[in-house]
Amino acid sequence: MSPRHQAVVAALQLLPMAFFARQVQRDISSSSSSGSSTGYGGSWLSAADIGVGTSLLTMALSCVTDLHCRRSFLRQERVRQQQEGQEQGEKLKK
After folding, report:
1. Where are the domains positioned within the chain?
2. What is the dihedral of CA 38, 39, 40, 42, to 10 degrees?
3. Is the dihedral of CA 61, 64, 66, 72 positive or negative?
4. Alpha-carbon distance 64 to 85, whole Å?
């Protein structure tokens, strides 16, 4: 996938992950004992932080994977071109 499409996929994950994080935080704060508070309270800021963090980690993982695949492809392409060059050199010698 191109980097632009990877960025779009990561951006599309931002809102659902923020909603999910907010719901989890609300469940944690409501399930805690009545006398203590976790401090989360389902705030949108911390939920947005989790959503942004998830998107950034998704992009980082995509970039690392893409870099590895590109290097492998270029290495294979270089070997193929060297083999073709050697074959053409042998044809010229004949």
Report:
1. 3-93
2. 100
3. negative
4. 32
| Per-residue CA distances from 27 to 9, 15, 52 (Å) | 27, 18, 20
Distances (CA, A) of 84 to 70, 75, 80, 81: 21, 14, 6, 5
Please tell me whether the overall predicted TM-score, pTM, comes out greater than 0.70 for this model: no
Mean pLDDT of 53-69: 82
- Residue with structure tokens 């004949």? 94
Helices in 1-94 by DSSP H: which ranges?
Answer: 3-31, 44-93
What whole-number distance in Å separates Cα of residue 10 and Cα of residue 31?
A: 31
**What residue has token string 């083999």?**
83
d(CA 62, CA 81): 28
